[in-house]
Amino acid sequence: MSQIETSQPSGDAAGLPARAAALDILGAALSGRSGLDAGLAHPAVKALEPRDRAFARALAMATLRHLGPIDAALQARVKKPPPERVVNLLRIGAAQLFLLKTPPHAAVDSTVGLTPPAFKGLVNAVLRGLTREPPNLADPDIMAPPWLYARWRAVFGEAEARNLAALIAQEPATDLSLKDAGQAEVLAAALEAEVLPGGTLRTERGGDVTGWPGFDEGAWWIQDASAAVPVRLLDAKPGETALDMCAAPGGKTLQLAAAGASVTALDRSGPRLQRVAENLARTGLSAEVVEADAATWADGRAFDAVLLDAPCSATGTFRRHPDVLWVARPSDVVSLAAVQSRLLDAAARRVKPGGRLVYCVCSLEPEEGEAQVAGFLGRMSGFTLDPIAPGEAGAPEASLRPDGTLRILPHHRPGGTDGFYIARFRHA
Ligand SMILES: C[S@@+](CC[C@H](N)C(=O)[O-])C[C@H]1O[C@@H](n2cnc3c(N)ncnc32)[C@H](O)[C@@H]1O
Questions:
Q1: CB-based contact 102:56 (threshold 8 Å)
Q2: 268 CB less than 6 Å from ligand 1?
Q3: Which burial class, exposed, middle or buried, applies to 247 when counting CB atoms under 10 A from its CB (0-12, 13-18, 19+)?
Q4: DSSP 3-state helix, strand, coil percentages of the chain (rounded to 5)?
Q5: Sheet holding 220-222, edge to edge
Q6: 294 lines ligand 1 (CB under 6 A)
Q7: Opening angle at CA 301, ends 299 and 303, nearest 5
Q8: Ligand 1 atom nearest residue 249's Cα
Q9: Which string of DSSP letters, residue by residue, matches 17-46?
């Protein structure tokens, strides 16, 4: 079980705002997709002192990363579930006790202090009971929601499912993509980073990234090592045209622009495209930014290289977004798979004869990956799979499938990585 280092607010009334904020972040994160980001960006959280804000974030994230075993421990002690906010109080109480090294009296007293009067006795009794019999919060078999874990066991096998579930509890390092690969050594030294295969920098640095060397100059952007693979596989050259069909917030658009391609970045979300524009401005890169539905975009152009980083259940991103595991529903996979098929057909219509198409999703679910490729090849004549070579683009060799597509599982890279499925096609 990981212990999270963070400075602690006191356990008395002075420490309550940070804990109340953690409670609100947790409630927002579990309320639906994008809830975690909304919770972290809430004005009440932003208004906290930096130390309290860091504690609130660390507490909410530690709770989400261990939600499976925390809930198992609580269910064993609470016969009739109390209201959701009281359940969340018990969850952050348990996380303080066993993950944040909060002294037991401070964890219990502060949690009871935030609890409505009718439930103070229950919260006090449950948390004190846990301190007497500490639960095992590191069991991979209860890290993920049961329905999802059952799927992973069926698809990947018992051992692989365990290995990937074991990463749910781990806090990831920060991965960076560089504007200029020639700067890798200099920036790696300045950022105390390791250079991964493919050129991603990985650093264990903490704190505000806007103060890190190279941020103001736009020398890098945050992008998980797996997320950097699809654009490398497209291999867009200076002078070529490239279309990024689902572009926001823009990590892959930046890679395409840095490669020298003439890039069109499409997304249907205006607010998310604003982030693409900000990222382009900071890095001094350029792209044509278009707000449109990619499935119905009325534009006659075809491109040398097309990327479809499709909307998906995002179950592969659980290291940075542990909330995705708990808000995803089996029906999401079905409905998103239908969207992905429609977008893949639209992407194919944009590829020039002889051009390349890369399809990717940060999902671990085969309906959104392998099944999309099989369906596409069955529907669409004129496209063939362009098999990815071992080690190409810095992808882990363990991720390469016999058909030349990539199924990157989070444990395929030492230290972890986002889960991705990636396929490359060529237009006749
Ligand atoms: C996985 S994210 C893309 C991440 C992005 N490629 C990056 O690397 O930063 C999926 C994006 O698809 C967009 N999207 C969803 N449906 C779309 C559609 N029909 N047309 C265009 N964009 C869409 C969402 O707004 C979201 O920004």
A1: no
A2: yes
A3: buried
A4: 50, 15, 35
A5: 193-195, 201-203, 174-178, 220-222
A6: yes
A7: 135
A8: 9
A9: HHHHHHHHHHHHHTTSTTHHHHHHT-HHHH
* Ligand 1 in reach of 295 Cβ (< 6 A): yes
- Quote the ligand 1 centre to 294 CA distance (angstroms): 9
* Known active-site residue 362: yes
Quote the CA–CA distance of 6 and 266 in Å, as a whole number.
Answer: 40
**Residue 180: what pLDDT?**
98
Catalytic residue among 246, 312, 360, 362: 362
Substitution site in 246, 315, 343 for ligand 1 pocket (most atoms within 8 Å of beta carbon)? 246
**Strand pairing class (201-203; 174-178):** antiparallel
Superfamily of domain 223-427: Vaccinia Virus protein VP39 (3.40.50.150)
Nearest to 69 by CA among 194, 157, 169: 169
Segment 382-399, tens digit of pLDDT: 999 999 999 999 999 999
pLDDT number for residue 295: 97
Of 248, 174, 165, 175, nearest to 394 (Cα)?
Answer: 175
Domain ranges of the chain: 13-138, 143-169, 223-427
C-alpha to C-alpha distance for 365 and 371, rounded to whole angstroms: 9
Q: Is the distance from CB of 273 to CB of 248 less than 8 angstroms?
A: yes
Distance of CA 427 to the CA centre of its chain: 31
Average confidence (pLDDT) over 239-244: 98
Confidence at 14, pLDDT banded by 50, 70, 90:
low
Question: Which ligand 1 atom sits closest to the C-alpha of 342?
Answer: 19
- Domain 13-138 bears CATH identifier 3.30.70.2190: no
Q: Which two tokens stand for residue 101?
A: 């090294």
Name the pTM for this structure: 0.94
The response to whether residue 275 sits with its C-beta less than 6 Å from ligand 1 reads no
Amino acid at 163: N
Phi and psi at residue 147, to the nearest 5°: -65, -35
Q: Which residues pair with 359 in a beta bridge?
A: 308, 423
